[in-house]
Amino acid sequence: MKAKKLLNMNMVGLVFLAAAFAISVYRVMTLTKQTTSTDNQKIVTILHWQLEAGYRDSLDRVIAEYNNLPRVKEAGVIVRQMGVTERVYAQFLNIHLLSGTAPDLSEKGMASMTGGDYTGRFYEPLSNYATAPNPYNNEQTLPKDMDPELRKVLETGPWRDTFVDGMRGGWDDKLQDYYSIPTSLFGSYRLYYNIPMLRQARQMIRDAMASDPHPAWFADVILRKNADGKDAGFVSLDDGFRQWAAGDDVPDTLGRLMVVCRAIRQMSVDTGNSKLVPIAGSSYSAGIFTGQFVVPFTYGMSRQLDFNGDSSVTAMEAYAGYQRGVWNFKDPRIVGYFDCVRVICEQFPVGFLGLDREQAMRRFADKNASMIATGAWDAGGIFQQAEGTPVTETTRVYPGDTVTEINGEKRLNFKFKVGIMPFPMPAAGERWGEVTSHVRISEAGTNAGANYGLYQRSLNKEWAIDFLQYLTSYSVNQKFNRGADWIPCIVGTTPAGQMRPFTPDPRGVLGGARLEFAAGGANFWTVFQGQLWNYELGEIKYDQLVGQVTDAMANDRTGLARYWYDTWDTDRTATRNQDRMLAVYAMRMLTQPSADATAKYKRGLLASVIANNGTSVKQMWHAQFPDKPFPRF
Amino acid sequence: MMLRRNPHLCRSLLLCGLSFAILWAAGCNGDPFDKEPTDQLRQRASNELSTFNFQLAADMYHSLLARTPGGDPTRPEVLFGLAMSLQNVVPATAVNIEESRRTFEQLLSESPTCTFAPPATLLLGRIAEVSDYMDDPVDLEGARQWYEKVIAGWPGQPIADEAALRIGGTYIQQYDDRAAIEQGVRYLRDWLKDRPNNEMASVMWQYLGQTYELSLDNPGEALSAYLEADRIGLVNQTLAGRMWWHMTELAEKLGRTETAVTYYRKIVTEAPRSGRAWEAQQALRRISEAHPEMRIVIPELRSFMGDAAREMTDQPEQTP
Known about the structure:
The complex is a heterodimer. Chain A is of the alpha+beta class. Chain A folds into 4 domains: 1-33; 36-186 and 447-502, D-Maltodextrin-Binding Protein, domain 2 (3-Layer(aba) Sandwich); 190-421, D-Maltodextrin-Binding Protein, domain 2, CATH 3.40.190; 523-624, no CATH class. Helices cover 47% and strands 9% of the residues of chain A. Chain A contains 25 helices and 17 strands. Chain A has a 4-stranded mixed beta sheet. Chain B is mostly helical. Chain B has helices at residues 2-5, 7-27, 38-50, 54-66, 75-88, 94-110, 117-129, 140-153, 158-172, 178-194, 201-214, 219-232, 240-253, 257-270, 277-290, 307-314. In chain B, helix 5 runs parallel beside helix 7 and helix 13 packs antiparallel against helix 14. Chains A and B meet through helix 6, helix 23, helix 24 and helix 25 of A and helix 3, helix 5, helix 7, helix 9 and helix 11 of B.
C-alpha cells in the first residue's frame, strides 16, 4: 500500500514533465542569450542548411578570423553560424520570419517565405550596397602580383561586378533589386566516377574486342537493328571507338558511356557482386539525367515551339506545339529520348526511385557503383568518403581504420581515387546519333548560389553586410570555398584542383531551348509523371506510357483544353501581380526617389504591357485555332 | 433541463460565451495605431506598402486619414497611399476596389494638381482596364478615357507617355480583332512620330515589335521596331542577349544577313552569359563559310572564372 503511494505514476509523469519543461526553458534561455545582442555585444547570426562535409568547418574558420579583426572586436561584434538540416529548414525559417525573430542573415531558398512577394516583406533590398565597392578588397588583402585590371575591378568597382555572375544569383527579377548575396558557385551537374573501376571496365572492353568471337555481353553493345526493326546496341566498332578504347580517356560520348556501363554489369556477374551497378541512381539523380538529355533530343524543335521568341519554351508552348503537330509521341526524336531515358535508368539499381541521395552516395563510396551524378556541393562528401582524409598529427586512428599512402600522402580510410567528367552526349554513328542535335547545355548563364539575405528587422544590418563583404572578398572567398570543397564566385579566383571540372563551360545551347514536358499543375501531367516513373522503373513499356498520357491529354475536362484555361488564369493573376509590383515602384518613386527607380519602373511596365493584360495565352490560342473559341471551365 | 442535467455542457457554453466576449472586446479596442505619432506612422505605412504589406498599409492609412483633415499638406499622400493599398490587397475584392476607386476620385477632387494626381488618374484607368476579381468587367473604353485625361492634364510629362502606351495596349490586347490591333499600332506609331525620344519610347518600340510579329504576322516591321528599341537602349538589359538572339532569327528569316551578323557578334561580345553566345559563334562560323566575302571576324567566347575556365575553353570541344 505504502509502495503504491510512493510510486504514484501520475507524480512520476509530472516530475518528468516538470524536468523536461525546466530543461527546455534553460535551453531556450541559453540559446536566446547566445543569439541576442546586448549593450556590449552585437550578435550576428548566419543561418544555412549546408551541412555537407567541410562547409561548416570552413565557415567557422572564416567567422573566427572575422571575429578577430580589430575593428570587429572593438565594436563587440560576434558572428555565429547556425546550421539547420534541410528537412526542417523551411519550417524553422518561415516561423522565425513570421514571428520577427529570424537570424540576421539566412540562406535563401527551401523556405517559401524567402521567395516571391515574401522576399520584399522580409528581406532588405541590397542595391545600395551592391553598387558600392567591397572595402575588403584592398591593397592589404589582394595579392601583390595581381593583374592590374582585375585589381581595379576588385578595389574600385561596384561589389556586384566582383562576382563572376555579376551578382545575378542575388538579383530578384520580379522585385527588380538585389535581395541576397551569393557566396559560392555551384557549377553544373557532373558524373563522379571510380577511377580504378572504370580503368578495369576499359580493360574488359579491350579484352572483349580482341577476342574472337566477342563475348555475348560485348556483342550486345554493337549497334544493330533488331528483328523488329528497332535499334539495339550502342556503338559501331569503327576506328574512333577502337582508338578511344585503346586510350585512357573517359567516355566522351553517350554510346561509349553505355559500353562502359555494360562492362560494369558484366563485372557484377563475373565477381558475383549483385549489388554492383554502373550508376548509383536515386530519386534525386533521375531528373538530373533526363534534364541533361532532353536538350540534345529536342533542341531542333525549340524554334518552332517558342511562340513568343523569348528563348524559353514553356510547357504551354510545348503542348501547343503538340496540338499543331510540331511533335508527337511517334516522332523519332521523342521516341529516341524516351528510349535513352529507359536505357540510362537500366544502369541504376533496381527500385532506384525509392533510394535517396545519401543512399546513392554510400553505394558509390562502397564501390557498389562505378559512377554517380550530382553537383559540386556533394564533392566534399564524396571525396571524403572515397578518398578518406589526410592523416595529421592530431588524427586518431581507431581499430578497423586503414592508413594508406597515396602519392606520398598518408590518408585515413582511403578506398579509391575519384574522377569527375561532364555528361557525354549522343554522337553521330552511335545509337540516338541520328535523332539528336549533338549539342549540350551551355553553362555560361550559371549563377552563383548559397545566397544569404539580410533580414529586414535585423538589429545589426550594417555588421551583417560587413560580414558578407568579408566573406565575398577575393582572398577570403577563395579560401572559404576551397576549404569547403566548393567553387569560389569572385572574379579571378580559382577553385581547388579537384573542383576544376565543375567550372562552367560556356560552350553549348541555352537550357530553355528544348521541349518542356513538365506542365506543373495540369491533371494530365500528374498522370504523365506517375506513368513516367513506372516507365523508368521498367514496369511499363513506351506504348503503354504513351497510351496513358495521350488519353489524359485528350480528356475533355482535365486534359489539354483545361491546361489552356488554367495557364490563361495563372497568367492573368501574374499580370495582376505585376501591377502590384508597379504600384510599389510608383510609391517608391514618389516617396523615396532613387537613381534607379525609374529604370526599375520601366522594366516592370514593359513586362506589364507585353503581357497584354493577361491575354497572351488567348493570343497564342487564337493564332493556332483562329476559328475555335477559347476553352472555358 | 438539458443544461441542468449536463454540467459539462453548461461549463463549456459558459467558457464559449466568455471567450467570445473577450474576442469581441479585443476587436473593439479602436484604432491600433492611435498612439503612434502621425509622421512616424505615415513613414511606416509607406514602408509597409513598399514591402507589399497592402492590408497593413491600408489599415495604417485609414488611421492616418482619420487624423489628417482637409487642407493638411500630407492629406494627398495619405489618400493616394490608402487608395493604392486597397487596390492591391490580396485577394482583390469588389469592396476594396470600389473604395480604392472612390478614394482616388476623392484625391482628384480635393487636390487636382498635387504630385499624386497624375498617377491616381492613371490608376483609375487601370482599375477600369483590369479584371481584379471574379466577374469584374473589363472596361477598355472607360480606361481609355482616364488615360486621355492624363495626357490632357499633364502633357509632355513621362506619365503622359505611359498613358499613351496604355491606350495603345487597350486596342492591342483585343487579340481577335485585327482592326483594333492595327488601331493600337497606329496610335503608338503616331505618338512616337510626335515624341520620338519620349521616356517610354524603347518600351513602345519593343511592344510594337511583339505586336507586329505575333498579332500581325509582319516580321519585317517587327525587326525594324526591335532595332529601334535597341538603338534607344533595351529596357531590360539582363535579357538583352535573348532579345538580340530573337532579332538574329528574324533577320535570317528575312535574308538580312548583315543585321544577323551584327547581332550575333553583339551576343558573343556583349551578352556572353545569355546562354546564346556559343550558338551565336557557331552561326557566325556558318555564315562566314557561306559568305567568305563578308570577312567576318568571329569573336572568342569569354570566360568568367580565372585560369580554370580558360583552360576548359582551350580544350577541344567534346561534342562531335
